[in-house]
């Protein structure tokens, strides 16, 4: 068993957090109004009695960005978890489909599916994860029939009182439990928070300038395409969003 030093964690985060900020900005600048209008519920906005273009555009954009950022940041945390586990247990990115991390600890081969938080998917997504765990067990036992394998759903934040879930035969570790599981350090979950703010102010200011430009552009585009004399044409918007052919 190795050991992860604080300086190694800080160095990794400061080196790689820029990737999160960069992807966040690139995705914002690549957005099209038509894309987010087709993915959101126009009936909801009518029911909320929204009348101005910006009041409609802004929550649409914010909801889209929030979903994208969760995915991008999830990828960053997955990379951080693999880096830490590599230092401590010689963990590695698994070559098995649907498995993010693989490592040996106390004569057990762990196969880990990493998610951001505990409430990450519906029953279909959970069943897919269980199927991936079963496939990983089968693959690993092809070369070593006696290998002791444990499957883990690791969640980077949140809590779960009982880490074992009988259905599907896998453990679920969340928040502090997960970071301690891959590092052996019960306090690691708090140690990673501070370096995440590396240059956050500068990068967020850059993002907010681009964000304001997109809000203004989308508002103008919406007025041009979905307003008549400054009034939202709800019928046209619903047809654009939901008609069989448009």
Describe it for me?
The N and C termini lie far apart (60 Å). The chain contains nine helices and eight strands. The model has no long low-confidence stretch (mean pLDDT 89). It is an alpha/beta fold. The chain has one domain. Helix 1 (6-29) runs antiparallel to helix 4 (53-89), helix 1 (6-29) runs parallel beside helix 8 (200-226) and helix 4 (53-89) packs antiparallel against helix 8 (200-226). Helix content is 58%, strand content 13%. The strands form two sheets. It has a six-stranded mixed β-sheet with strand order 1-2-3-4-6-5, with helices on both faces. A two-stranded antiparallel ribbon has the order 7-8.
Instruction: Domain count, please report it.
Output: 1
**Average pLDDT metric:** 89
Strand order of the largest sheet: 1-2-3-4-6-5
The helix/strand class is alpha/beta
Residue fraction in strands: 5-15%
Give the SSE string.
Answer: HHHHEEEHEEEHHHEEH
Radius of gyration: 22 Å
Task: Report helical residue fraction.
Answer: 55-70%
Shape: elongated
User: Count of helical segments?
Assistant: 9
Summary keywords:
single chain; about 250 residues; alpha/beta; six-stranded mixed sheet; two-stranded antiparallel ribbon; 9 helices; about 60% helix
């Amino acid at each position: 068993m190795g050991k992860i030093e604080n300086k190694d964690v800080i160095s990794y985060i400061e080196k790689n957090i820029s990737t999160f900020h960069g992807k966040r900005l690139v995705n914002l600048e690549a957005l099209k109004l038509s894309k987010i209008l087709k993915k959101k519920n126009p009936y909801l906005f009518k029911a909320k009695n929204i009348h101005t273009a910006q009041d409609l555009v802004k929550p649409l954009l914010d909801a889209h960005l929030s979903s994208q950022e969760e995915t991008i940041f999830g990828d960053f945390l997955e990379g951080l978890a693999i880096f830490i586990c590599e230092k401590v247990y010689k963990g590695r990115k698994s070559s098995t489909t649907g498995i993010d991390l693989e490592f040996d600890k106390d004569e057990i081969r762990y196969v880990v599916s990493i998610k951001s938080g505990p409430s990450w998917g519906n029953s279909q997504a959970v069943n897919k994860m269980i199927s991936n765990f079963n496939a990983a067990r089968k693959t690993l036992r092809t070369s070593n029939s006696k290998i002791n394998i444990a499957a883990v759903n690791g969640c980077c934040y949140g809590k779960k009182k009982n880490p074992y879930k009988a259905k599907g035969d896998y453990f679920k570790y969340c928040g502090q439990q997960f970071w301690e599981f891959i590092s052996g350090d019960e306090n690691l979950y708090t140690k990673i928070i501070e370096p995440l703010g590396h240059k956050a102010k500068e990068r967020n200011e850059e993002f907010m300038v681009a964000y304001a430009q997109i809000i203004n552009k989308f508002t103008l585009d919406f007025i041009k395409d979905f307003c008549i004399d400054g009034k939202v044409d709800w019928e046209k918007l619903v047809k654009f969003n939901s008609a069989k052919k448009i």
